[in-house]
Design goal:
The chain is α+β, with helices and mostly antiparallel strands and 179 residues long. The protein is 32% helix and 25% strand. The protein contains six helices and six strands; from the N terminus they run αβααββββααβα. The longest helix is centred in the C-terminal third of the chain and has 16 residues, at 131-146. 28% of the residues are buried.
Length: 179
């Protein structure tokens, strides 16, 4: 069975219209610091999931900015939620990696075949460029910068982050001029 999964991952193409590369001028991965005890309060010491309070605060901040946040849950040791902006949907993932936070905006599968593909391949895709994506990224950036207990916010392109290349850090998620 393992050989079938490996073969599947090698030959199956990504869903149409998406890739693991961010659109030009857009960065969808925010890496930041902040180890205040408040963000870890209520986390279970035996669980790999941390930052539940930080994730809820981020989601609440997005909701106050007019973004619908739905289906909060967990995925592979991370917090995740669906964010709806206008008619577009995105996945927001928050992880604690090497004593730093990583918030990522990802493409959201809508069809059953797309969900199966993601489950079997484990691939992470970038959302296509749109005014909705840029609005979500800017709302996340504003919220992160508004929190005095979070600092060193840097935005990275998804393809660089996946290759563990952190040399592309940028102060903002979207290059100017806007979309």
């Amino acid at each position: 069975m393992a050989a079938v999964v490996v073969a599947f991952r090698l030959i199956v193409r990504p869903p149409r219209g998406v890739s693991s590369q961010d659109p030009p001028g857009v960065r969808t991965v925010a890496v930041f610091s902040g180890d205040d005890a408040e963000w870890f309060a209520g986390d279970r010491p035996d669980s790999p999931l941390v930052g539940v309070r930080l994730f809820h605060a981020l989601c609440d901040g997005l909701a106050r900015a007019g973004i619908r946040v739905e289906n909060r849950g967990t995925v592979e040791n991370a917090q995740c939620a669906e964010c709806a902006v206008d008619d577009s949907r995105f996945c927001l993932v928050l992880e604690w990696i090497d004593r730093r936070w990583m918030a990522s905006v990802e493409w959201t599968a809508r069809k059953a075949a797309e969900r199966r593909h993601l489950a079997m391949t484990g691939h992470v895709f970038s959302p296509p460029d749109s005014p909705a994506l840029r609005r979500l990224l800017e709302c996340i950036d504003r919220w992160l910068h508004s929190q005095p207990k979070l600092h060193d916010v840097g935005w990275h392109r998804k393809e660089c982050w996946l290759e563990e290349d952190l040399s592309d850090a940028h102060a903002a998620p979207v290059d100017r001029p806007a979309f």
